[in-house]
Known about the structure:
globular, four-stranded antiparallel beta sheet, glycosyltransferase, 5 helices, about 25% helix
Amino acid sequence: MPSDIADPRTGQSWTVDVAGQAIDLPIVAIKPDFAISLMMLIDLGVRFGAHIGQALAEALAPAKPDIVVGAATLGIPVAIEVTRALGLDNYVILQKSPKLHLANALEQRISSITSKGEQRLLLDRAALPLLAGKRVVVVDDVVASGSSLRGSLELVRRAGAEVVGVGVILTEAKDWHETLGLDRDLVHGLAHIPQFTKAPNGRWEPIPGT
Length: 210
């Protein structure tokens, strides 16, 4: 539903209930006639992080995962909190920035609705023993186009892991259904957000069917 808390870039925001906790997300224009509601998890505090970690862990626990995988950057706090709530210790982060120790990393090309151009997901080969032959859940903050999440799943499987579940805080629109194919059935989301188009009155309104 609309909210009175405004973002200066569009003058609007969107309120969503995330597993019983309401948060207001600024509506941010990507194109002149297209906008999204933007969640920056790192700005929402540790209590919210613990909240989503517990909620996702409850959804993913029946899959009996051995380890949690998340993608940098905003997937890192999700991976940490879900790991903690599941009572596990180790987790694996798929990096996007090249670093010295990642010179020989496994690599997967991806694109994202909130990032310009093609990016790379990098898996440190030192983490391979944590994944090979293990039951893995992959987590992230939002799934929109599904490209980033698909890249994560492909990279984890190349490492020899079995993906038994996917957890995201928010599902956005429905493009990710086609991108993920049958893997969409693995996805557990805590809430859903639409995408937006500009109405004749200048207000941003949800795109029907998203």
